[in-house]
Amino acid sequence: QVPPSLAPIDALERYTQISSHPLHKTNKPGILSIDIHHSKDIIATGGIDTNAVLFDRPSGQVLCTLTDHSKKITSLKFVPRDELLITGSADKTVRVWQGNEDGSYGCRHTMRDHGAEVEAVTVHASQKYFATASRDSTWCFYDISTGSCLTQVGEASGQDGYTSAAFHPDGLILGTGTSEGVIKIWDVKSQ
């Protein structure tokens, strides 16, 4: 049953585009990931062009472009509590970016724990930790403040690379998806 608080189909059919903003390079178009910093109304996009772009929706202006990755950005997530943005890339790295008062972001940590493309970044409910999932068939659990990998988990029998990951809202379980269409549910404490 569709909840009555959701917009009905006829209302969705009347939606129109109110603006369009080309944020990434046109010679390598494509946005692979998007996240919204709800309290600041900032949109972050990760692109095929190797850049993460932070866009201020109310002003319609690009705040900054993060250019340190060498391959496409496959996943990104805000950590609003500490004004952080986490990016994962096909270059096998994960970066934690610190927001500054002027709206710019600087790279605070670079993690190189994966042996293949990082496909997913997910932030723990506490906003003190995050996890990444990779095509190398491992997922890593990180401390945000230090950038250290607290554990890296892989399965001896698992040859399928991970393509997605998400924490349950309570942070006690982690779901991962594989390139073969298998979903795995993990107890975060026991891995």
From TrEMBL:
Transmembrane segments: none annotated. InterPro entries: Prp19, WD40/YVTN_repeat-like_dom_sf, WD40_repeat_dom_sf, WD40_rpt. It is found in: Nucleus. Its EC number is 2.3.2.27. It catalyses: S-ubiquitinyl-[E2 ubiquitin-conjugating enzyme]-L-cysteine + [acceptor protein]-L-lysine = [E2 ubiquitin-conjugating enzyme]-L-cysteine + N(6)-ubiquitinyl-[acceptor protein]-L-lysine. SMART domains: WD40. One of its GO terms (biological process) is DNA repair. Keywords: DNA damage, DNA repair, mRNA processing, mRNA splicing, Nucleus, Spliceosome, Transferase, Ubl conjugation pathway, WD repeat. It comes from the Eukaryota. Belongs to the WD repeat PRP19 family. Ubiquitin-protein ligase which is mainly involved pre-mRNA splicing and DNA repair. Required for pre-mRNA splicing as component of the spliceosome. This is Pre-mRNA-processing factor 19. It comes from Aegilops tauschii subsp. strangulata (Goatgrass). The lineage of its organism: Eukaryota, Viridiplantae, Streptophyta, Embryophyta, Tracheophyta.
